[in-house]
Amino acid sequence: MDVNQIFQHKVPWLQNPDIRPYVYVRDENSISQPGKRHRLDWFSKAPIFKDPLDLAELPFAEYIYHIENIAFGPSAMPMPRWVFYDCAVMPGFVCGFAYKKDKLPALLKAKLPDFGDIDYVPLSLFIIIPTMHKGEWVAHNLCSVNSFLDKSDQFYGLGFLSKAFGLWYANVEQCSGMTQWGSPALKLHSHYGHLEVIGAYAPVHSHAKTVTYRAQVNASSWELFFTKEADLEFLEQYEKTGLLIDPKNEKSMIEIQSKIQNNEGPFYLNASEVLANDLKAPLDLYKPKGY
Ligand SMILES: CC(C)(COP(=O)(O)OP(=O)(O)OC[C@H]1O[C@@H](n2cnc3c(N)ncnc32)[C@H](O)[C@@H]1OP(=O)(O)O)[C@@H](O)C(=O)NCCC(=O)NCCS
Question: What is the number of helices (H) and of strands (E) in the chain?
Answer without folding.
Answer: 10, 12
